[in-house]
Each structure stands twice: as C-alpha cells, then as structure tokens.
C-alpha cells in the first residue's frame, strides 16, 4: 500500500530557511542604513535591488513548490484557508506597523499581500500541469512589458492608480517601502508550482533531503527548522532588529 505523501519536505523547508536568513541579512543592512550607521542607496544600486529580486524570487518559488506539495499530500481547502488567514492577518499587521514607521511610504501591497492573492490563484490553477510553464512566462512578460504598453496606449495610465497598481500593469512604481504586485510575480510562483510538481513526480525532493541530511546534518536541520517557522520569523525579525538598533543609538 502506497504511503501518503507528507505535507512538508525538509529540503524545501531548508531552501526556504536559506531565503529567510538571506532576507534577514538584507533587512539588517537596510535598518543600518535607515539609522545612519551606513550610507547606501537601497532603491537604485544594483547590489541591493538585485538581491531583493533574488530573495523574493526564491521565496515565491518555494511558495509555489509548497502549494504543489500541499495539493499532492491532500490538503483540504479548509486547511488552505487556515494558513491563508494567517498570511492575510500578518499582511494587515505589516501595513499597520509600516504606517507608523513610514507614513509617507507605508506598505499597502508588499510581499505578504501579494502572496495572499497569488496563493489563491496558484491553488485554483494547480491542475494545469505543464500549462503552468507558459502561464508563468506570460505573467512575467505582462509585468515586464507593461511600461512599453503604457507608452503605446496612454489610456493605461489608470492602472497606476492605488486601486489598481497591485495588479502590476504599471509604468510608474508607487512610493512604498515594499511592492510585490501580482504581475510579474505570479509567474514566479506558477513556475515554483511547476517545479514542485516535477520534483515530486521524479522524486527529487526526497533525494535532496536525504543527500543534505547526510552531507551537512546540523546546518540542514537548522535551515529546515527556520523554513518551517518562516512566517513567524518574518513577523518578528524586523521589530527585533529595529529595536536593537534603536536601543544602540540611545546607549
């Protein structure tokens, strides 16, 4: 009798944990800059903008692969909505907290807001199979080519309005500390789901878990633990970092 597929995979958790630690280092540098300990342009210098893109892409690939695993393990819609509710609630808390810290550039559609929308779309399209690849490519192309479309059709300027710019079909980036629109990023999550489905079919996740466990058991276990608690870590790390830096300025 075939054993039911576990709802979590240590290799995927470890990859997510690596992304979490990378993000923490990035945010620590951002906080150092905010409090004047260093002087960096996080909005225009490639060293920082490319890192942000890589970190976000890794998170969304893991989220898509996680949905592939959840569907394959038989997660119900009720279970999905419970987890989704946690993400949506945390997104609301991020908005509230960012408003007090950055009232002129508060986060109204950041990574958690974007993930809340994209996870629903990803779950609804889980049965697309190989069509996830072209769908992902199309989503990314729409987001990337939106400025050119605006140049051809000025009427699309309405999509820059706050009520619609969460879609990502813009040519003017909004003033906000974190902006993760549905397009092009849904394409990355769709590709993550496609990779996850392929990895499950070929047994790659199970093999990666076994190899990593034998080659580097302690770092692997630590990363997997961080990855399993990624949402909690995400919500706590910035208040702790900001609090420590604020305290250091008072000492």
Rg is 19 Å
Question: What would you call the structural class?
Answer: mainly alpha
Using DSSP, what is the number of strands?
A: 0
- Number of H/I helices: 9
How does the major sheet shape up?
none
Shape: globular
Percent strand:
under 5%
Tell me roughly what share of residues is in helical segments: over 70%
Which residues sit in consecutive blocks of at least 5 with pLDDT less than 50? Answer: none
Calculate the mean pLDDT score and round it.
93
H and E string: HHHHHHHHH
What is the straight-line distance between the termini? Answer: 64 Å
Describe, in plain words, how this protein is organized in 3D:
- With 251 residues, the chain is an all-alpha fold.
- Helices cover 71% and strands 0% of the residues.
- It contains 9 helices and no strands.
- The chain has helices spanning 10-34, 46-72, 77-101, 111-124, 132-152, 182-202, 204-215, 217-228, 230-250.
- Helix 1 (10-34) packs parallel to helix 9 (230-250), helix 2 (46-72) runs parallel beside helix 4 (111-124) and helix 3 packs antiparallel against helix 4.
- The chain is globular and about 50 Å long.
- The N and C termini lie far apart (64 Å).
- The relative contact order is 0.17.
- The model has no long low-confidence stretch (mean pLDDT 93).
């Amino acid at each position: 009798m075939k054993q039911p597929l576990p709802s979590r995979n240590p290799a995927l958790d470890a990859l997510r944990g690596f992304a979490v630690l990378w993000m923490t280092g990035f945010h620590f540098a951002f906080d150092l800059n905010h409090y004047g300990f260093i002087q960096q342009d996080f909005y225009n210098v490639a060293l920082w903008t490319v890192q942000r893109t890589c970190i976000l892409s890794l998170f969304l690939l893991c989220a898509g692969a996680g949905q592939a695993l959840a569907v394959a393990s038989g997660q119900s819609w009720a279970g999905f909505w419970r987890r989704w509710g946690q993400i949506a609630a945390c997104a609301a808390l991020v908005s509230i907290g960012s408003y007090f810290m950055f009232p002129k550039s508060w986060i109204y559609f950041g990574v958690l807001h974007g993930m809340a929308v994209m996870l629903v779309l990803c779950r609804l399209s889980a049965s697309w199979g190989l069509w996830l690849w072209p769908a992902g490519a199309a989503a990314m192309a729409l987001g990337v080519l939106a400025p050119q479309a605006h140049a051809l059709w000025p009427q699309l300027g309405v999509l820059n309005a706050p009520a619609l710019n969460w879609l990502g079909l813009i040519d003017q980036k909004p003033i906000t500390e974190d902006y993760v629109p549905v397009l092009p990023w849904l394409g990355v999550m769709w590709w993550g789901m496609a990779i996850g489905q392929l990895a499950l079919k070929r047994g790659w996740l199970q093999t990666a878990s076994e190899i990593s466990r034998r080659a580097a058991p302690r770092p692997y276990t630590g990363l997997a633990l961080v990855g399993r608690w990624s949402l909690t870590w995400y919500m706590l790390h910035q208040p702790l970092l900001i609090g420590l830096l604020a305290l250091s300025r008072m000492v």
